[in-house]
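User: Can you help me understand a structure? I only have the sequence.
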Amino acid sequence: MLYMLLQVKVVVPNVTIGMIIGKAGCYIKQIKDDTGAYVQISQKSPDAVLVERVVTIAGFLKFSMFYCVLYTLPVYIG
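Assistant: Let's start by predicting it. Here is the structure, written out as tokens:
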């Protein structure tokens, strides 16, 4: 089985970040459980000008799981 260490950063609008986190963190937990990846979402900026946040996904993943994460993230986003 081929494993690789990778890190993917995705820029997400503030208005949709709740769709990734989910109620009480259920969606982000599901992403972590399904993929085994480390998922971190940047803090919301107090500056109203910044309307995006960065979602970082990292970890040792099966090569096939890398594609699964990239293709399923839009499903979690909506």
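Now, to help you interpret it: Helices lie at 17-21, 26-35, 63-77. The first strand starts at residue 3 and ends at 13. Let me know which part you'd like to focus on.
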